[in-house]
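debug: dumping io for the single-chain case to check the tokenizer round-trip. Nothing else runs in this session.
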Amino acid sequence: MLSLLRYYGSRGIVLERGYMQYLWDTSGNRYLDANTGHGVAFLGHSNPHIVDAIAKQFKLLASLGLSFRSRLEESVLESLSRIRPGKLDSVLFLNTGAEAVEAALKLAWAYTGRKKIVAFRNSFHGRTLGALSVTWNPRYRKGFPVLSDVVFAPYNSDAEMLGNYIDHDTAAVIVEPVQGEGGVIPGSPRFLGDVSRLAGEAGALLIVDEIQSGFGRTGRTWSYMKSLAEPDIVLVGKSIGGGYPVSLVFTREDIASSLKGGRHGSTFAGNLPAMAAVEAAVRLFLEEDIPSKTRVAGRELIGQLRRRLGGNSAVRDLRGEGLMIGVELRYRPEPVLKCLQEESRVLALKAGATVVRFLPPYMITGGDIEQAASGVESCVSREYSR
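debug: decoded output
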């Protein structure tokens, strides 16, 4: 009997089905999912709009290389044009967030002819070798031959400090508008604007990683839109597939053309079920005005958390944007995560060293918010009052 290599520690339950914001285990217990597979199920589990689109496409045609055209290709590009970041006019389909990061780095190197990459402390961009090289946590990088031409600048630093890192040797600066894995740390509008301006002045490309924060998660279509930043490349993944594995790289045509002629590729990139999932997700996004609903739910959730946790000595900070929220504790969060799961039937996840992270689907109700907030209050008080 084979054993499964688990990249993360086991949570000790067996889940067998999900619908929208809820999951059920094999004992019939229902959980509010504020984990969502690190943010993937932002549109809910088994959302009928996504499921129907994928099933319909599978019945027609599932496998088709990008050497061939399809009607769906034209349709999904038209849909994406309605939410594209800024004036970016080209898109690459890939399969995972890390693949999107890899492609973006190759675009920057090919387009500028330079090698240096500026990333940020506490960043997370993935675990394949290129993506790992621009991921801050030394524990993830230890023992692997990561790229040497990468420097890490302080996140949310001022223009003077940034000028010590971004120079005319820089191919690209890669930044998350909200650092997720690093601790749910929002980038300030001024910081993001300064990064954009300095990158432009240096002739470097600005890569904005919206893989976790984008597609309405923070209450905006793209989180960077809170600033005056003008990205050259925007990376999208997780929620835009509605649960189906897909990632996108938005960029300009002149940058995208740097990888023509077989300089990049992927067997499954742009597969038709993925395109169908993205088209359905964008349609739902626009019809339901998901950013607006996210802003409302996010304000209610963070408001309840502030009312319940204000003055609690175990809580160092509470922060976030939209439905990307972190409760920073003075202690490790694992006991609270365990308590939330077992006592409150709420699934959350860790960020940084001490943060309980909430990434629920956009359709959570007032009752769901009450369940999550009261659960955190109870679990924090229980675990750290000893």
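debug: round-trip ok. The chain has two domains: 15-33+289-384, 48-287.
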